[in-house]
Amino acid sequence: MTRLRRERLVRLDRLDLGRFDVGPGRRLIPITGFLLTTDAGTRILFDTGFPAAYAQDERSAALADGLDGFGRLLDFTPRQTITGALALHGLAPADIAQVILSHSHIDPVGGLDLFAHARIWLTAAERALPRPLYFGARRPMVWPQTDYRTITRATEVCGGLQLIPTPGHCPGHLSALIRLPQGPAVILAADAINRASEPAEGYPDADDPATAARSGAKLFRLARRHDAQLICGHEPADLTPGALRWP
To answer: How far apart are CA 244 and CA 203, in angstroms?
Structure first.
């Protein structure tokens, strides 16, 4: 058993990684990461946000990535890069020992190259990709040379943290069940359910809507079993202060 397996999660913090306007007048959505801390002080990061280049020149970065035709990242400052968001907690990327990557689209994977020192957890299907998915047909990133732990089934990382493959949005998508010592259990659905309305809409943003529906149903069953708060990947209502209810 590894040392991490003997540890237990004691804290979950949400990281503000920006807001994205998905096309004119459609919806404003949050870009979110999470900082997890164990009772031994190990820091675990769930997703890494957009590339820092977007905080320097959003328009040029979006044009280079082809993102300008999809929507735009709004008011993205250095505080909302993964480095800036960690700094608000008194941390730097070097303080992160483990990274969980829900999937490799631009908004979870953009800061991954800062964590080549860390162990990275992801599904085997995602790691099998020659390069991260990034956006559209663009594949500008390479996988960092580091310690990858790939999973194919529900896997306990440490006490209170279980990773759950949830394919559909993309074949290698990953979600997490978190149980803290106090407060409700939390499910980080990420883009397995990217907004509360997506199941009723038939998962139109998924690569494979039928598989996404099965993964979504699995997460809803898990939420009922654990009386858990289910946090969607980009739910507009989560931008409202106090929307999330863990301590």
So the answer is: 23
